[in-house]
Amino acid sequence: MPDKKTTSQEACLDQSAEEQGSSIENNENPAQDKSDDVDKMSVEIPDEILFPDEAAIKAHGGEASDISEKEAELKDQLLRALADVENIRRRSERDVAQANKYGHLSFARDLLSCFDNLSQAIALSPEDKSDLDENLKNILVGVEMISNEIDSVLQRHKITKIDPVGEKFDYNHHQAMFEVQNDEIEPGTVVQVAQPGYLLHDRLLRPAMVGVSKKVSQTESDDTSSIDKQA
Asked: What is the pTM of this model?
């Protein structure tokens, strides 16, 4: 026969186990209960933990469309600035090239008058120098050598002479000083060069001073024939 004291202890143990089970069932998910309480609270998130885009939008007090418009405007300004820099760079390169090509234009133009005087002196010297004094002969030969050297220097620096005898008159490179009546040559042809012209690359340094052919008019020929008949 079981002891009454043992039976009462077992009954107490069963009752405590049932109470513990019920308490575990009631507190089975305590984290969920806490999260429910947090959801019911109104929590204000500080600006420091916002994402960068959201923080920028809130800082400017606008919407995402305002930010995109500002970005587009800044991008347009940047592209315009880059285009201006590129144009300045190309313009500078073109100016440097032009300066290297035509920088000595004024100097060459001033030098032409000296070269003309030297050429005229050589043209007036006799072709046969055998009868001349030895000293004078050496001087003339030295002047011719200097003229040839200057001509080589001009050609080396792309300065070319315009000597258009027999060519068609070109108002871009020639300047008509007088007309020569001649029926044997086509009108408008250069028949005489009073002063040669010069080009620096493709730029005119000085036009050639020329005489241009002209046909004898019919009235002038008739007047000449009538004068001959009267004579």
From this structure: 0.57
